[in-house]
TrEMBL record:
GO terms for biological process: GPI anchor biosynthetic process. This is Endonuclease/exonuclease/phosphatase family metal-dependent hydrolase. The keyword Hydrolase applies. The keyword DNA damage does not apply. SUPFAM superfamilies: DNase I-like. One of its GO terms (molecular function) is endonuclease activity.
Amino acid sequence: MRLATFNLLHGRSLSDGAVHADRVRAAVADLDADVLGLQEVDRAQPRSGLLDLTALAADALGAPVHRFAAAVVGTPGQTWQPWHAEADAAHPQYGIALVSRFPVQRWQITELPAAPIRSPVLTGEGLLLLKDEPRVLLAAVLETPHGIVSVGTTHLSFVPGWNVRQLRHAVRAMRALPAPRVLLGDLNMPVGPVRAFSGWRPLARAATFPSGTPRTQLDHVLVDPRGATALGRVVQVRTPHPPVSDHRPLVVRIDR
C-alpha cells in the first residue's frame, strides 16, 4: 500500500508559472499512490484554468474515490472569505483533498481556525504581512488490504505556534476514528516539532522543500502509535521531483 502527500501549489510550474492539466496529471500518476493527500488545491479558479484538480488527480491514479474540502472561497493572496456551506460550487475555491483507490466507509471534516494575526511571509514581492487562511482536516475511514485504516490530510498554518495548536486539534479529531490512523500533509513544521507536539511517529524522514534543492521536511506521513503495528512496515520512501509545485511529494510504501 502506497501513501502519499503532495502540496500542489495549485498545479503551478516554477519553470514558467503556468498550470497545465497534463503536467499535473503526469506528476500525480508518477506517485502511483493508493491514498493521496493533496494540499493547496484549486477548484474553479481562473489562475488554474478553472480545473478541478481533485478530479484530475483521481483520474490520473485511476482512483474511484475522491473528495475536496474547501478552506476558502475566492483566491488566496487576493480576495477571499472563509468557506461556508452555502458557497456555490461554481465559485473559485481553495483547500485540500483526499484521493483513494480503496472504498470509504465514512468521511470526517474538522475546521481548524486561522491564526488571528498577520505574519511576515517571504513572497515574490518581498516580505509581506499576510492574513492567515482558515485550515481544515479531511479524514476518511478506508477499507484497505491491510484492513480498516483511518487516513486524514491537512495543511497547517505558516504562523509559528498556531500551527502547533492546529496540529494538536487535528490529532484529537483523528483519534475519534478507528486505528490504525495516518495523517498526511504539509504541516509547515520540521519533523522534530511535529513528532514532539503530536506524539505521532513519522513514517519517513526526507527533505521536501524547496523542491529544487530540498533543505527541510515540511510534508509528513505520520502514524498514531496506538494501533500502528496493524498498519505494517515501511519498505520504501520516495520524494520525486515533479514538474509542478515548490514542494516535493512524499511517498511511503507499506507492506506487512
